[in-house]
Amino acid sequence: MSAPETAEVLARNSDEAAEALISAQGLTKRFADFTAVDGIDFDVRRGEAFGFLGPNGAGKSSTMRMIGCVAPVTAGTLRILGRDPATQGPAIRARLGVVPQQDTLDLELTVRENLYVYGRYFGMSRAALRPKVDELMDFAQLSERANAKVEPLSGGMKRRLTIARSLINDPEILLLDEPTTGLDPQARHVLWDRLYRLKQAGVTLVLTTHYMDEAEQLCDRLVVMDGGRIVAEGSPQELIAAHSTREVAELRFAPGANAAAAERLSAALTGDRERIEALPDRVLLYVADGERAVARSHEIDLFPLSSLVRRSTLEDVFLRLTGRSLVD
Amino acid sequence: MTLEAPPTIAASNARASIALRVLPPGLYAGRGYVVLERAFRVYRRSWMVIFSGFFEPLFYLFALGTGLHKLVGTVLGPGGHPISYTAFIAPALLASSAMNGAVYDSTMNVFFKMKYAKLYDAMLATSLGPLDVALGEIGWALFRGGLYAAGFMIVMLVMGLMASAWAVLMLPAALLIACAFGAVGMAVTSYMKSFQDLDLVQVAILPMFLFSGTFYSLSVYPAWLRVVVECLPLHHGIAMLRGLNSGVLDGAMIAHVAYFLVMAAVGLVVTARRLDRLLLR
Amino acid sequence: MGTEVVAAPPLSARPSAWRVVEYQLVAARRYWRSMVILGVITPLTYVLALGVGLGVVVDNNGRQLGVPYLVFVAPAFLTAAALQIAAADASFPLMAGFKWIRTFHGMVSTPLTPDQVCDGQLLWIAVRLIVNSSLYLAIMAAFGGTQRWWVLLAIPAATLTGMAFASMVAALAAVLENEGNGFNVLFRFVVTPMFLFSGTFYPISQLPDWGRWLAYVSPLWHGTELARGAGIGGLSAAAAIGHIAYLMVWLVSGVLLARWRFRVRLTK
Fold first, then answer.
1. Is residue B112 exposed (0-12), middle (13-18) or buried (19+ Cβ within 10 Å)?
2. Which chain B residues are closer than 8 Å to A69 by Cβ?
3. Terminal CA-to-CA distance of chain B, rounded, Å?
4. Less crowded by CB within 10 Å, the N or C end of chain A?
């Protein structure tokens, strides 16, 4: 432990009065010749669910590792719970829960032992851990597998165990790096439910994801990262309002005819921020009123094979901001 | 949700503060024993792995002691007294097995946990520091080494191979050897990139095992080779245990102990710093 | 993706176990460095430390063996090394092919059969044993561990010994489903004792009765007798045939067992 610990424990109450649990200014992470995070600013407030969105390689995981105090900051300032991770890493980590991108469960231990031993790493007493472990196995719906080895568990079970494990020290901030990647829909929904409950209980959630539905479900506020920078920030609704239109009309024409159709349809766009995107298999019209756009198409004698009008989603914002081409 | 300050933190501050003066902050939380506790839980179930390691030096002792003694004839122990060949190799085998066990634990096992099981990543996401991890792992290796050494010494006692009461001190001495090799082994492992590099450990260990005078005295070597071998750590381990077993103690004992203390300290500091670089980056 | 049409391989080009050996050769490029270093350092160490070094002590104590100690132990070290390499190569690397990297599952999704995969792995080990044993012999010779040309026969003797054991270990590799703790027990309780109690360091007449009987069962003792006979003579034709026959029984039953277990594991 660093420095005079007791003084810090006493100082905790005043730290907690501060608005931002995590605050970063000009936060930068550079590896040898590559800048993973390029001077970003953000604040995470107590009790909110804050998301980092972005394609692979956007710098999300590097940011999470810096917040988790397992990667030193190259430049800029980062304060977590009012403290500097460079000098007070262990003290900060004592109050964090971490769900890494890839499970780091202890394959040589059982489900119960994974929770128990992890609690011991935090210096918790055996007596305090016993009820806590039972409670968390219940929370993760793993009580029946308590004495099973970890390796044969399903992906969803392992993920739930990882989340349960991250809660062993009653963390004030829970860091989740792509919590549901690779899980089937049932497992994802179970996890979302658990995370929602934690949020209700007052835990501050910080998560990265590239699933837009996940971000919309869970996040109060999020930032979109691309190439190590923050390209947009706000609530899901704010982002949609700011970077997309209310509705999207998807018109599907015969193969090869989509580009030509898009050309002619561009005349139909009128409103503010409305735009058109021609893909090989369909044309997307970002408009305020999707039904009207489809009607306009018919008026100029363009009859798509099929048409679909939907509301704009975070995914539209995401693709608009970070592009459609593959990043890695 | 709130977190009560873990009760051990304050208590461990006194211990931690000493380490903090020489090491960067955040390296040590004074809780290496929880890493040890984990190892006990794991091996409670796979005791066979532990148990089987006890036999290797015994096989060497029986096979080479019984079979070679006629070919080799009488040998001279420390102090120039003639002793049986079995009594000659027994303390040396104890030293060698302390080395082998510690090196295996600190290279193979640590490499696997670091690169594949990501065990240390999980530990360092908690309030543990790299030095806790290093101390805990070395502590485990020492415990295991201590068990083997004690077992082997009981066999020596039963076979009448101990010539002096000083022989009891072979146990702490074997632990010191294991500690030094374990610390250096971990430091070396932290530089390894692939399983191929582990084979290179064999390249260092096997010649040391066979050349350091386990099976014959160094007097068979030409002078230059004797000097080289006398610089190797295992030679000091063998000389130390042989001296203790025969009760022949001289100033060289202090040199042997100092050698291993320095080796352990260097290994430990390098390991903690490397783990910091490797895992916290 | 190119548009070029690739001609289908002619059907007559039936795949053979040698394809597997070819694959192993390509894969070996990744770890040739440690293979070569270990292949040189290990024999050098044994020959110098326990052949030359221990030889000084033994030879000073009257030549009870009739030949310099180095000449006596070197062929046995060569055979023991073959056995150890064979056991190592047939254990964890094969288990990885089944379990961790699953190369073998990939191989049988081509026209290769499980039998061919099995044979190929064993052939590859045999190739390694021949190369390693030749290297060993060269190092022995460099330090005066050889006395006559017949010693060249130690290479096939060692290879046969190694393969007799490797085939059995390969069968075990196909059976084990766990993390390979069975191999740890095998190495500690079979391979190491075999090395120590098979007359490598001294004639087995030095052993008590029970030790001698252990040696008679151990394939390594039979291999050692053959290699030592090649190196220093004194082995009757009848004895040589007996040793070879015993090793052949191990080899043939090992190969049959291994093929069977490969079939079971890979067609499941």
1. middle
2. 26
3. 30
4. C
Whether C229 shows a pLDDT value over 90: the answer reads: yes
Closest CA to A81 of A72, A63, A94: A94
Q: Which chain B residues contact residue C53 at CB under 8 A?
A: 211, 215-216, 220-221
Q: A324 lies in a domain?
A: no
Label residue A164 by pLDDT band (50, 70, 90).
very high
Angle at CA of residue A274, ends A269 and A279, nearest 5°: 85
Residue A272 belongs to domain spanning: 245-311
Q: Which of A57, A47, A26, A316 is CA-nearest to residue A206?
A: A47
Would B193 be classed as within a structural domain? yes
End of a domain among A181, A209, A233? A233
| Nearest chain A CA: its distance from B160 CA (Å) | 41
- The predicted pLDDT at position A41 comes to 95
**C-alpha to C-alpha distances, C93 to A77, B192, C24, C162, nearest whole angstrom:** 49, 20, 11, 16
Distance, in Å, from the CA atom of C69 to the CA atom of C53, rounded to the nearest integer, reads 10
Contacts of A201 (CB under 8 A, 6+ apart): B1
Average pLDDT over residues A179-199: 85
How many folded domains does chain A comprise? 2
A104 within some domain: yes
Instruction: Print burial letters for A185-212: b (CB count within 10 Å at least 16), e (below 16).
Output: eebbebbbebbeebbeeebbbbbbbbbb
Tell me the three state secondary structure of residue A26: strand
**B14 residue type, one letter:** A
| Element (DSSP H or E) covering residue A25 | strand A20-31
The domain total for chain B is 1
**pLDDT for B37-89, tens place per residue?**
999 888 887 777 778 888 889 999 999 988 898 888 888 888 888 899 999 99
How far apart CA C216 and CA C222 sit, in angstroms, is 7
How many whole angstroms separate alpha carbon B246 and alpha carbon B251?
15
Does residue B178 lie in a domain region?
yes
Q: Which residues on A lie below 8 Å from B116 (Cβ)?
A: none
C69 close contact with B: CB closer than 8 A:
yes
Among B186, B51, B173, CA closest to B105: B186
Neighbours of chain B (3+ CB pairs under 8 A): A, C
Residue A292, pLDDT > 70, answer yes
- Across the A:B interface, residue pairs with CB atoms under 8 Å apart total 122
In this structure, which amino acid lies at residue A248?
V
Pick the residue from chain A with its C-alpha nearest to B127.
A90
Count the Cβ atoms, other than its own, within 10 Å of residue A273: 13
Specify which residues A29 forms β-bridges with.
A37
Measuring CA to CA, which residue among A289, A290, A265 is closest to residue A276?
A265
Average pLDDT rounded to a whole number, residues B169-183: 94
Q: Which residues contact C124 (CB under 8 A, 6 or more apart)?
A: C20, C21, C24, C25, C89
| Helix-helix angle A111-121:A126-139, to 10 degrees | 130
